[in-house]
């Protein structure tokens, strides 16, 4: 399928024959910007684990709390890779509520996200919001574009929410995070969430991974040790590596339906010294 970007004469080629994580996440959150192939795999996953939509909302709630906390530490620049389809409040809305002058760059590789970039780009007059369509592996292109909006000589919060479990070790997951961390100035933060098999029975985690792989998607649910490895050289902030629902819950509101539900994700925020 081809969709035209409203702001250009360029046609965006959207692959509707294969599910995409951004569109599936949209479906889990109750959005309508997805296709039958995304819904089909989503329904298979929810049929096996009905709590997945609640888990998705718990993950997003962590992002809101983490961004609010980092902005409260004085950080005014954010780079969000693996943005997904806009679902309010978006990261820039959370950051600019704390600091109207916050500057945010979004990045995703699905053209449908670019088609909705208008919703992402409406920020405060004092701040700035930009978007780049690029694959997470292409860190050079992401950073080059982001430098048009962000000053990498000053602290930047790098947000990698529910992204890295779609990139295997053999595809350079750790290397791409290292390249991004190297570009950050002292005082910057890494915000990350990641699916893990540690909170659920091994058989259930294997079944979820198998369903994703049958849909043509990589799914690597890393355990705690492998998750912590992404933060090498950084200083974790309290409470360290925890489940999504346990990271500063006082900074947000409980997600409806989260009672007695485990998010299934490790999360952490860490500072570059």
From TrEMBL:
<dbReference type="Pfam" id="PF04672">
    <property type="entry name" value="Methyltransf_19"/>
</dbReference>
<dbReference type="InterPro" id="IPR029063">
    <property type="entry name" value="SAM-dependent_MTases_sf"/>
</dbReference>
<dbReference type="InterPro" id="IPR006764">
    <property type="entry name" value="SAM_dep_MeTrfase_SAV2177_type"/>
</dbReference>
<keyword id="KW-0808">Transferase</keyword>
<dbReference type="GO" id="GO:0032259">
    <property type="term" value="P:methylation"/>
</dbReference>
<dbReference type="GO" id="GO:0008168">
    <property type="term" value="F:methyltransferase activity"/>
</dbReference>
<protein>
    <submittedName>
        <fullName>SAM-dependent methyltransferase</fullName>
    </submittedName>
</protein>
<keyword id="KW-0489">Methyltransferase</keyword>
